[in-house]
Specification:
Pfam families: HTH_1, LysR_substrate. By secondary structure, this protein is of the alpha/beta class. It has nine helices and 14 strands.
Amino acid sequence: MDRLDHLRSFLRVAELGSFTAAAEQLGLPKASVSLAVQRLEAEVGVQLLHRTTRRVRLTADGAQFQQRARDLLDDMEDLQGMFRRDTQLKGRLRVDMSSGLARQLVIPHLPDFLARHPGLEIELSGTDRRVDLVREGFDCVVRVGPLDDNTLVARPLGVMHIVNCASPAYLAARGMPYSLEDLSHHALVHYVGTLGQRSPGFEYHDGQTYRSVPMRGAITVNSGEAYSAAALAGLGIIQVPRLGARVALAAGTLVEVLPACVAEPMPVTLLYAQRRHLPRRVAAFMDWMAALVTPELQRLD
């Protein structure tokens, strides 16, 4: 066995939790698979697997090594097929985007993408926190909002336009605001990236620049899902991308307010690490994302 075979043996044991099952799938003697993992552990200088009579599981070092080993083998397969355009895309993709974008737009269309590329596996992180693309091993991320890392390659997809909205129950209790002055009698659901930060308040364009109006509010949240849920529960006004509010607006569970006073549109960007040769599986996914997201954003202008 060469080193790549050692990696393949290790990955199969880690995935199945069994040397016996891994050997059966690989078509190798159990002793050969066990020896391959032992040699790999000797080469890297750490124990990768905990072995007991009942099961095999990854050590903490093994879990980190597993991710890098998968990436290495995926890249090797991509390298071997880089001049064969008819070669099916294979390997794992790890991507991150906001939970709202994942749930409302991307996941509903993923079956079609995976049907066209059945050799791909996708790890989708739907979170509102800013992940570290390089340190956490993501192939690409979709960022909504201003960029703060110029070490990554940026591919703009468009902008998300913002809408102000509140629930019918909230408006029945507080009244419909018709001007910025009316906001003194209203509550805002505050959104911050990290709890403890201060919310800027209600943001709007005054004809020349973007400004904000400080507002009271009984609740502060740090996730998009909680933000929308708070508005639906009647806790106040929110300022949310129209893409995220369109279903609720169409159903009447949220109502648009102050349409002439909206916050600055939020840029949507695909980010990936600078690499001399971008793996074909990553390029294919990003092209698909651009074709999916950009027209949708333009439609909601």
